Amino acid sequence: MSKRLKTSKQITSRGIPALSTARPVQTVDPNRQSVGNNKMLLTAQSRSGRSASPWIDHDTHQNVTRDGRRKVMVKGRWLAQNFPSLTGAILEQSDMACGTWVPEFQGEDKDWGERATEWLLEWEKIMDVTGTLDGDGYRDQLLASTLIDGELGTILTETPSKHPRIQTLRSHRIGSMQEKSLATDKHKVVDGVLVNRFNRPYQYVVQPDNHAAPITIHAKNFILSYDPLPGCPDQLRGISWLGSSADDWEDLDESKRFELAAQKACSVHSLIEHNEDGEMDPLKQRFNMSQTNDDSTNALETTARIEVEDQYIVYRADSNSRLEAFNYDRPGQNVQQYQAMVETHGFRGIGWSRFFSVDPSKLGGASMRVEVDRLVRTLRRRQRLISRTMKRIHTYALAKAINLGLLPMNDEFWKWTYQKPDIPTADRKYESDIAVQENNAGFITLDKIAGRRGERWQDVQDQRLTEVKRQIERAKEVLGVDLDPVPLLFPEHTTIENRPVTGPVNQNDDE
Question: For the chain, what are the domain ranges?
């Protein structure tokens, strides 16, 4: 019975066949040392004339230290408040990505889902402990903070009566200079985050104010919302998206300031007089001296005004004397193109388009469609971040409501999705026609169509029925005719034989 099987398959205790494993084949002699080279890839070689790349083969929190991350955050805040076009682009993303955000229950008990949805919509009006943010305001701040600061912290808390609330924390309140003292044998501190040996956040360090000792909040009661940088899955803190374009915006600011100084210097001159002496003729000027005094009759300043007495100036023939208009073209076309290029790169740092936000006249047709498609991908990325955060907040709020007896228990209380606002399109009429055709063919539901517009399909359908009902009642009351509701609800199917009026029909109508 203990004889080993010599076949390639063995039967385990659970009856599952287990495949035998082949032994590894040794292909390299470990005792032999060989010298390699980097001739295969030019970028792997050190070449003259090119600067050496920094060695960033470390974890994200080592490539970007705490001080470096905070420096980028400060730059992001300064940029957002001092560049109107950039501020407008952030507001545009908030308006388009957030908008009306309606929770939608995905469980089987639809009646419970309707009741829970109504409770959530009412709770969002008082969700913030400060009373300044409702659901829409919180989502706007969430998106703006992830772009400017790189992150937004949200504490899941409660009132003294155990009702759920949230509290927001900006990036500078997370972490402390004294955080190293909070490390334990099982948890190390990385830039304000206590992580376990799997690099999973366990607690977050919070600085209540500048003078109080830091406190820790468990990860189950804290949400740190951020969008990791590409290729940084180990990122523990959010990094400002504006930071990648900070140099471009600063270059644009300097270019504008220098160009403005040049315009001011040139605008004070209107004419240039060329003469033999290089000085103004003393007989053709008059000095009018004026003096400014203060309340004590003390002289503050003395100014001189030079006026040319004659309307015409006569110059001697064959001399270098002449008048020349001082013409200047500032900023020139090259300068404007350079500034537009720098601004375009700055907008790309936050996944947006300068042409869409500032100068849409430069695009048309296929180019505009390409730009809009890029913006749609950016907005969907932003919406995924908002959905992750809102689902956790709503699940927490519903759990507290169930514990308080405000809602009955439901095992699927965590199954939620969201009707998101409509995504912009380059051709709204075309998209609308496609939606109607796909809905008639059964490829898309009214739920999806209404969700794109930031509405609930139940409300749209109820309102439509209410309007048709009132139209039928008013037609009977005012005109004395009976209307057929089917053509009113489906006008695209109305024919001569299926008229909305069931009374007598004029013979001329058939022509």
Answer: 60-242, 458-510
